[in-house]
Design brief:
The protein is mainly beta and about 200 residues long. The chain has one domain. It is built from one helix and nine strands; from the N terminus they run αβββββββββ. Strand 5 and strand 6 form a beta hairpin. The chain starts with 6 loop residues before the first helix and ends in a 6-residue tail after the last strand.
C-alpha cells in the first residue's frame, strides 16, 4: 500500500491498496464494536461469532477482525473466517469461508470481499487466498489475492500479496496460498486474529 502527499496520486494508491483492506468491505464491525466506513455498501466484517466453533472439525483456521496501524490515519480493516475441515486435512485447496477488507483515507478508498480458495497454517502463521467476489474497486472482481497473518497475541502482524506491486490489480496470475511476509502491525485495541495450526500427514 503506497501513500503520497499528492491528492491525485494518493487517491489512486489508496484505491488500489484499498482493495486490500482486510475486512474487506469492511464496513465490518470491529472487535471493539466500532465500524469502518464502507461507503454504505452494507458488507459486514466476517463475524467470528464463536472462536471455538467447530474446532473439533477444523484441520486449520484463520478467524478474527482487526485494524492496521498507520501513521497517516488510514482506516484499514481485515476480517477472516477461513477454515479447512478435518476431512480435507490433506488438501488446503478445500478450505472454505470468506475474508473482507477495506481501506479509507480522507474519505477516499475501497472495500472488497473474497471467497477462500486455499488456507495453509503453520504454528501461529496463516496464509489464505481467495477470489474477489464483491468490491467497489474497478477491475478487481474475479482476481485472486492472498493475505498472511501472524497470530502474536495482542501484537498480531499482517501482510498481503500486493505488497511488492502496490495494487492487487497487478497480480492477475497469482497462485493459490501466495502472499508476503506479515510486515504490517495491528492497531492495539482494535481486534485480534486467531490461527489454528495445521498438522498435515507428511
Amino acid at each position: 500500500m503506497r501513500y503520497v502527499r499528492s491528492n491525485r496520486v494518493r487517491a489512486v494508491a489508496v484505491t488500489a491498496a484499498v482493495l486490500a483492506t482486510a475486512t474487506a468491505g469492511t464496513a465490518a464491525a470491529t472487535a471493539d464494536g466500532g465500524s469502518d466506513g464502507d461507503g454504505g455498501n452494507g458488507a459486514h466484517a466476517a463475524a467470528d461469532r464463536n472462536p471455538d466453533r467447530d474446532r473439533d472439525r477444523d484441520a486449520a483456521a484463520l478467524t478474527g477482525t482487526a485494524k492496521l496501524t498507520r501513521s497517516l490515519g488510514d482506516d484499514i480493516t481485515f476480517s477472516f473466517d477461513a477454515r479447512l475441515a478435518a476431512e480435507h486435512n490433506d488438501n488446503p485447496r478445500k478450505a472454505t469461508g470468506t475474508f473482507r477488507f477495506s481501506h479509507y483515507l480522507d474519505g477516499e478508498g475501497a472495500w472488497a470481499e473474497a471467497e477462500v480458495d486455499c488456507l495453509v497454517t503453520g504454528g501461529k502463521v496463516a496464509v489464505v487466498s481467495g477470489t474477489i467476489t464483491d468490491t467497489d474497486l474497478p477491475g478487481a472482481k474475479g482476481l485472486r489475492i492472498g493475505v498472511t497473518v501472524h497470530d502474536k497475541g495482542h501484537r498480531d502482524r499482517l501482510g498481503y500479496s500486493w505488497a511488492g506491486t502496490g495494487s492487487p490489480l497487478e497480480d492477475k496470475d497469482l497462485a493459490p496460498c501466495v502472499s508476503s511476509a506479515p510486515f504490517e502491525k495491528v492497531k492495539p485495541g482494535t481486534g485480534d486474529y486467531r490461527v489454528l495450526p495445521w498438522h498435515p500427514e507428511l
